[in-house]
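re: ur question from yesterday

yeah so i grabbed the chain u mentioned. its 517 aa long if i counted rite. heres the sequnce exactly as i have it in my notes:
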Amino acid sequence: MSQPSPPTSQTMHKLAEPAPPCAIVIFGATGDLTHRLLMPALYNLARWKLLPDKLAMLGIGRTQTDSQGLREDLTKTIGGFVSDKSAEFSADKIDQEAWSRVANTIEYIDGDISDTKLYGEIKAEIDKFSKSGVGCNVLFYLAVAAKFFGPVVVNLAKAGLTKEKDSYWRRIIIEKPFGHDYQSAVALNKQILDVVSESQVFRIDHFLGKETVQNIMALRFGNGFFEPIWNRDHIDHIQITVSETVGVEKRGSFYEATGALRDMVPNHLFQLFTLTAMEPPASFDADAVRDRKEDVLRATHHMSEEDAQRFAVRGQYTRGKVQGKDVNDYRAEPDVSPQSQTETYVAMRLSIDNWRWAGVPFYLRTGKSMAKRKTEIAIRFKQAPLSIFKDTPVNEPIDNWLILNIQPDEGITWQFGAKVPGPHVQLEAVNMKFSYKDFFKVQPSTGYETLLYDAMYGDATLFQRADNIEDGWKVVQPLLDVWKTGKPPLAMYEAGRAGPEAAEELLAQDGRKWRPL
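ran it thru and got these structure tokens back, copy pasting raw so excuse formatting
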């Protein structure tokens, strides 16, 4: 009997309905995020016929142009993805009908987002959209610098633009970083939640739009052979890696004030961490899932000053080669101090004080200008006893790994030991690999598609709640406090390497080592 054909992106998306009629207002419409990720995501939703049948878009930016100018600029960017295969989104060709569906809806207003008069203009445009049949539902997207998040929401509320009535909704998507430490995250949440409700706020992390990230729950809770072994009795340790080959590039001023920990750990890495470690939720309801993620953060052991120096490493890249290309010393990059103490790499060991994970270390690492672009969750299982192999050439067991590959190639890999063909009993590591793009025939996406679609439908499952944000910052706050004192000193690593030697020592003190990049 022949096997059924694997589903494709097109057939999978036919199972979903278009989002409800709405207007999308993008603050920062002329910026990099809108060009590089939001517009490709909206284009994909158009291709998959998941955009609202009645849709209007309004871009807000500082660039002095008009609606037609913005449309032409965005069209040029979308066309460039055909030739640029290194981008997060790329395409063999552009579906002009789908792109026109997006581009033709875009209007533009240039102005200062700190000027309250601008919000009167926005309100007038939204009123026009409403009268044209789009309706009163509005999704505001804040693709702006973090310092503007609070003021923009407050100004929207003052203008009456966040008020919900007569069954229509007003929702706000807020980008990262949400705060720069625990106290600022608490203050920002208070500033926003003083004028809108939690149900209106969608704190986005595009990692949660990745199929493999979403599949963590399906893998764990939808397969009977995983959940029984997903605990301290069978798992030795877990490694979570988010390595980048790109350096700071032209973002020196931003990165100097942010660093690798603030930029990546309380959001991206902690999303992977909590999904891997959470208990089964009662359902896939948004709050049920976020409650279980919150449990993980609250159970995560808070480091003392001594722990922060012993169980965490901060590094900074120096001159080297990444994939054959010369890379400058971080301190020689534009807008970076020649004496910079900003980390471009961070590694840490976390422990969770609960029954499931007692004694199981979680090792997290992220960095720029590293040997390879890779995001993965690697689960190392405990070794089997070798007693039955005592009269064979087998001297040590094969490492057993379950590897969840998030990017660039989404999939799942099992590593286990198999007998080498021949008369003697010898074991060798072999892999069984599942690839999303090979089985499901998925098409290029940014990870924002699912999140935008969910926000239009009001499904907050893949978005962070206020307490999730605050407790994530609470976990890393001891590191921020200790690093202010200059302890431990920066560990330098050559660009194109897997990180500093101190990161290897972090695992070596536990008798373990990082998986090679």
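noticed a couple things. Confidence is low (pLDDT under 50) at residues 1-12. also The radius of gyration is 24 Å.
anyway ttyl
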